[in-house]
Design goal:
348 residues; alpha/beta; Ribosomal Protein L15, Chain: K, domain 2; Four Helix Bundle (Hemerythrin (Met), subunit A); 2 domains; 4-stranded mixed sheet; 11 helices; 12 strands
Length: 348
């Protein structure tokens, strides 16, 4: 498997020959072969020996550190990509307000189209007029986007579309044990929002990995403003996958009753702001229990290895390779003025 998750609390990773061993309380609980390993994701507080770090660097294994709730902490940078011309084009083009607006317009358009498709599909399946009406309400936003040249206006339309979508998101949930009363985060206040935040973080990490692999700068984007520490380009390019991959995975697990509210830990807290990540970890209102988190990650990996059609010329590809292909297409778009960037839009 190209990607491996290590998330056992209190464990450490050591090297044994050409493999990595996950050790807890003096006992080897897992073995990770080096062959084919491209990415190691450490969830929670996992210790690494110096020999393991040398092993990962030598084999150029991308290593991502995440909090127990799935929030990105750090990435082991193996080497900066040498494609200077591509990054130069990125800085020049995305610094042009007109080009940035055109790019943001395409990104938001793709995101809204995928929202419409999910609402229409589920509206037909459930014979739910409210879902169909919400999809109809999103279509004028797509039309207004096509005429918008101002970046702030485009961001406002994206916000309006997201509000319409999440106002009816609860109707997509067909498990009476789960409720959804609106999108909330930092921290999520209920199980559905906790799952959404977790999967969005995983997808953003996927996009960031693809951006780094292609030689782009993940911190210079168009739709999301530049802010210290925010991977704005990754936040831009993940938008086209939120509905198609993230929301569908969460809804599938809930609606098939793979998960129940009992799979979460709840804490009573009226606190809305936290001093740091550690305080939020201790006081957050809801989180997945560790075994459920492992099951969720397993379902996520299975999803990323599924295939999707890209038309007669491109054939089929896995969702993970789809993301890489889309980032490469974005790089071509930056370097060749005659090209356009087409976000992935779900074909019903």
């Amino acid at each position: 498997m190209e990607s491996i998750y290590v998330m056992e609390p209190g464990c450490y990773v050591r090297r044994e020959g050409s493999a990595l061993h996950v050790v807890k309380e003096g006992r080897v609980i897992d073995r990770i072969p080096a062959e084919g390993l491209k990415r190691l994701i450490l969830v929670g507080y996992v210790n690494l020996t110096g020999a393991v770090l040398d092993f990962l660097i030598h084999r150029q294994v991308e290593t991502v550190f995440m909090t127990p709730t799935g929030r990105f902490r750090a990435r082991l940078g193996i080497d900066e990509h040498r494609h200077v011309a591509l990054r130069k084009a990125q800085y020049q083009r995305l610094n042009d307000p007109g080009f940035a607006a055109r790019t943001a317009r395409a990104i938001v358009g793709g995101k809204v189209q995928n929202m419409i498709r999910l609402l229409l599909l589920r509206g037909r399946h459930y014979d739910d007029q409210t879902l169909r009406a919400a999809a109809a309400g999103l279509k004028p936003i797509v039309a207004r986007l096509e005429k918008s040249e101002d970046l702030d206006r485009i961001r406002g339309l994206e916000g309006a579309a997201t509000r319409i979508y999440f106002q009816c998101f609860g109707r997509l949930i067909r498990n009476e044990r789960f409720t959804f009363n609106g999108r909330n985060r930092r921290p999520p206040l209920d199980p559905v929002n906790a799952l959404l935040s977790f999967v969005y973080t995983l997808l953003t990490n996927e996009v960031t990995s693809a951006i780094n692999a292609c030689g782009l700068d993940p911190y210079m984007g168009a739709l999301h403003e530049i802010s210290y520490g925010r991977p704005s380009l990754a936040c831009d390019l993940v938008e086209e996958y939120r509905t198609f991959l993230g929301d569908r995975l969460v809804l599938g697990l809930i609606n098939r009753k793979v998960m129940t509210p009992d799979d979460f830990i709840y804490r009573k807290s009226s606190q809305k702001t936290y001093a740091d990540e550690e305080e939020m970890k201790v006081r957050r209102p809801v989180e997945m229990r560790p075994p459920v988190r492992r099951a969720f990650l397993s379902a996520y990996e299975q999803m990323m290895e599924r295939t999707v059609g890209r038309g007669r010329e491109l054939g089929r590809t896995t969702y993970r390779r789809l993301i890489l292909s889309q980032v490469r297409a974005f790089g071509d778009y930056l370097q060749e003025p005659e090209k356009v960037y087409s976000p992935f839009v779900w074909d019903l």
